[in-house]
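Give me the 3D structure for ATP synthase subunit a.
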Amino acid sequence: MFDDGSKIVKLFGLSFNVGNCVAGLVTAIIVCAVLIWLSRNLQMKPTGKQNILEWIVDFTNGIVKSAIPDAQGSDYGLLAFLLFIFIFVANQLGLIIQFVIGDVTYIKSPTASPMTTLTLAFMVLVISHIAGINRFGFKGYVKNSFFSPMPVLFPIKVLEQFTNFITLALRLYGNIYAGEVLLKLVFQMAQSHGVLTFIPAVPLEMIWQGFSVFIGAIQAYVFVTLAMVYISQKIEKEA
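Predicted structure for ATP synthase subunit a (239 residues):
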């Protein structure tokens, strides 16, 4: 019900959403190409494109340090960096290009699908629990994450894992999906009554495009920030 306009194919008994797979692959290719371009010919004294790369690294490292202030935060700098870049590009992809054949959308923002955002959120959830186990051992992790500071909080702690997962995924999905829907509505309005609707629709479309870029950047920042907070909750000892 979430993937209207997408093509589903079955392979080895599994169902794959072609639009999600293609859009995710395109996003990954763009991210790899941009990072390779930014990181070519690195110098001790950064200039030009190297400044952009180092600014992004410093920005995501700042997110990590704000959530995980001790030395362990350095272990998650690369994760935060890649998450931010991937989600930012994924959020903007549907603003740049939407490839539709017939009634099937093959390229759009991957994060406009709940399956993509749920996958990203689940990945963060798994990493956070693995990090907790590595830090405290399995028994220490269970005690620290679910029975501290009081054992009576165990049901709430279990429920919190589910709510963190759902809210992390659906917050990102809801914002990007709503933005793309509104862009489609403005485009349809532009075509509805010729010049009368086309003229006001053009500036409206441009304004919303710019606002969507801002929202996409904010949502990437929020997702990475919350991901680091959830990881910190598993690797820092409860009082």
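The chain has six helices and four strands. Let me know if you want a second pass.
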